[in-house]
Amino acid sequence: MFDTERLTLRPFIESDADHLLRMWNQPEVLRGSSNDYLVPHSPKFKEMFTSWVEKSLFFAIITLKDSGEFAGNLGISMGSSKNRDGVLGITFLHEHWGKGYGKEALRFVLDHCFKALALHRVTLSVFAGNERAIRLYQKMGFVEEGRIREAVWIDGQWQDIIAMGVLDREWAQRCQSATGALP
User: Fold this and answer.
1) pTM score of the predicted model
2) CATH superfamily of 2-177
3) Where are the domains of the chain?
4) Which of 63, 126, 131, 174 is spaced 20 to 30 Å from 139 by Cα?
5) How far is CA 64 from CA 10, 18, 118, 169, in A?
């Protein structure tokens, strides 16, 4: 279990599947996270969560430290173990957006990826229309590395998928320039 200022990142337990299903059935979450059809997921979808956890290098349920309330999840899977490339995914319940939890969780997980897991790079994909997430990722040091044009149909229009990444030395430099504190 890991704690940040306001969050706890803890292991997945079976009862978390209900919270994840509720989150993945929020239209706002699906619009920003899924390139599949925007349809309700059935309870059978919960079986996939166990698979995600088992395949992840690092997977955490994010809860609010003061109440223990489920807020979201994050995971790092190995894109290439030889090249120490971690692929990040992070999702929050819609009601927890705009509160700085994403920045707090990302700050912790990036530091953990580079210092404890010895990754060289962390990458992610984001839809071009998810401007809030893109701004956050840029603040955390991610840079755009590529774009898959008109790859996903969302709300009646095509959107690009943007590939972003941050390198270990870039993260270390950001931490150092912040006088030893994390960005």
Assistant:
1) 0.90
2) Gcn5-related N-acetyltransferase (GNAT) (3.40.630.30)
3) 2-177
4) 63
5) 11, 17, 27, 31
Close Cβ partners of 140 (under 8 Å, ≥ 6 residues apart): 103, 106, 107, 110, 166, 183
Crossing angle of helices 101-115 and 168-177, rounded to 10°: 120
pLDDT in 10s for each residue of the chain, 183 residues: 899 999 999 999 988 989 998 998 888 888 887 777 667 777 777 777 788 888 899 999 999 999 999 999 999 999 888 899 999 999 999 999 999 999 999 999 999 999 999 999 999 999 999 999 999 999 999 999 999 999 999 889 999 999 999 999 999 999 887 655 556
Strand order in the sheet with 2-3: 2-3, 7-10, 58-64, 70-80, 85-92, 121-127, 157-167, 143-154
